[in-house]
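Let us begin with a simple case.
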Amino acid sequence: MERLTLKKMEDSLGIVLSDDAVKALDAKEGDTVFAVPTADGLHLTLHDPEEANAVEDARAFMDTHDDAFRKLA
């Protein structure tokens, strides 16, 4: 566990991540970090959860219509 401090940044609050936290996220400057609500608080990730859901939906759709895609190919 790592303790992070909120800092005033213009009209907002920001969190400064340590080098260890950045390495754990496999992040670099300019990356977008998503804060996903969980039962315990927030989960930080570089992966867009909405994009992941869209990919799952697309796979399910393609599996459902597998025959049609084969005929189109």
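The second case is a distinct protein. As before, the sequence precedes its structure tokens.
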Amino acid sequence: MLCVEDMDTTPRVLDGGLAYTVERIGNIKIDADPLWTARLLHTDPDYIISAHKSFLQAGASVILTASYQASVPGFREHLRITENEAIDLIKRSTSLARKACSDVLSQDPGNPKVLVAGSVGPYGACCHDGSEYTGKYVEYLTVQELQDWHLPRIQALVESGVDILGVETIPAQKEAEAVIGLLQTEFPNTKAYLTYSCKDGCHTCHGETFANAILPAIQSECFIGVGMNCTAPGHVTSLLRSIQHQPIKKAVIAKPNSGEQYEAGKGWYGKEKCAEVQTFVPDWLSLGATWIGGCCQVYPADIAQIRKEMSRLKTM
């Protein structure tokens, strides 16, 4: 695990939407797959490496592993493999990210140090039923059940040598607190960041007030950053405004989607009504964001523009 002393004070560009970048590179569709990008860890790992490299070449200095929708139960059910084989696949997500970093660094030794963040997606993502954007499952799962489910993937990612964990797209405070408690108890030397998915400019997707929901991570020594991801850019601005009263001595993370709408069976639509993500960067920086990237429908070209805007404003 990388020493992350003072990491929270360093402005960084994060990567964008890995899944949809992989779709473009491989000319494939993964939306209907219950394993989503995680299946490619088993079938087409080169696509994942290529996607990582495209974000690195665009200027990202933090990349997330392709483990967002990876889980031991999911791999066992949909790939018909053993528990040990499933754990090895999760670890492979780190080795693929490391390979991409090595390849890019060999071409440009002047590149800054890149952090590999082990993606820890929500329980709902692996249900593949849309509940990752409602968090309703926390109403019938206990904290212990959530921790038991998250433990194998987190342990595999930690053992694989990720620099930090990216606990991302968490829709509900209860699940966030379950993961925070798990790290503090089982992995106290592991560093992580937490990003919620939010339904508006004030609330998580499950309905908790964002400003309150981030407090457990702010108070935890395991967490070096807090923020939101896969949230419309306009909501990100309001969410950042909602935490101006809090003295956050950690990275403040803004990793929005493109602002498009998503509908099952139809996919993403409404791009023509969306402002380019980089146009929001000045406001986000003025509101305290330090780590900025993208999520669904945010591609390497968008990340390059975000980096350009951050450099123009002399934050890097």
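The first strand starts at residue 12 and ends at 13. The domain at 7-312 is CATH 3.20.20.330 (TIM Barrel).
Keep these points in mind for the review questions at the end of the chapter.
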